[in-house]
Amino acid sequence: MRSFTDRVSDIDISGIRKMFEAAGTDSINLGLGEPDFPTPAHICDAAVDAIRRGHTGYTPGAGIPELRDALSEKFLHDNNIAVTPDEIIVTAGASEALHIVLQALVEPGDDVLIPDPGFVSYSALSRIAGGRAIGVPLVDLVMDPDVVAEQITRNTKVLILNSPSNPCGSVQSRKDIRALAELAEDYDFTIISDEVYEFLIYEGEHVSPAEFTDNVITVNAASKTYSMTGWRLGYLAARPEYIEQFHKVHQYVQACAGSVAQFAALAAITGPQDCVYEMREHFRTRRDVLLNGLREMGVECATPMGAFYLFPRVGDSDRIAAELAERGVIAVPGASFGANSAEHIRFSYATGDSDIVRALERMHDVFL
Ligand SMILES: Cc1ncc(COP(=O)(O)O)c(C=O)c1O
Questions:
Q1: Atom of ligand 1 nearest to the CA of 162
Q2: DSSP letter (8 states) at residue 27
Q3: pLDDT tens-digit map of 63-93
Q4: Rounded to two decimals, what is the model's pTM?
């Protein structure tokens, strides 16, 4: 019998997979966390152009200089943070950024505080890094600095923040982000701020904790903003002492992000931004249709301020997800997102308008 490390074999990926396996061919998939829009044409053109110009080899490990320059400007313009191009590493999606950061920061026995409910990768990647993932129960679907403070021990190494949030669609207030940044300073831990949904925000403002402290790694990606999930293009920003260590992991696991994707991302970040706002407004309309439809069926659901998920409380979400799957609607039961989430279910509205309407019709049998 072959043996595998506990830190890998203990990880359960069955929650979401079960739902997809239960899906019939006619199912409507509200389970996916990726925009359904094609990548905007000017971005695709830049990629084709990069291939034609022969940009098909390795790039500098940290990313092409033009892209890091553009990202440095983006951070100042969009996030109000001063980051030099040398303080940026371009990665294969936000996923790689999360992985290399946790590998560099977490020792066995270290605690990583993660939002519960939270994005599935946080717990898995913390454990793969040898750490313990400690779920911080969210209060009204956001991270409350007082609750975080109660969980801090001498083992606390990292706090992962994700605003706007997957799966909750919630957005952290400036006041709370500042308070969490102060905790990071006072107790000397590092915040990983996962900002991949920063432009998918319908109410409220997006605030980066790096405005308030240097103890932050800002993680972001082209994936959700520009509908570029398959291009695998993300990036991180941090102070030089961090970057020096992250480079080593990045170099040996990835060498560099894809060359063509980097040129595509350059066009995305420096080009017209109308596509971003158009996609966001589509998502807003869909959010309202799904939200109103659910509420009309008596389903209790907070209005999400960002991302493209609804996270209503439905009771036994495993049972509800199974009943929905039988009627051809795929959603993800809350338990996939942490111990505090079992009563919720995640619906993604990153799917076609007519599919949302049809899905609501199919839900009648389950919720009414
Ligand atoms: C909160 C969050 N962070 C990171 C990612 C991964 O992003 P990427 O596709 O850029 O690796 C996702 C994808 O669903 C996500 O929801």
A1: 1
A2: -
A3: 999 999 999 999 999 999 999 999 999 999 9
A4: 0.97
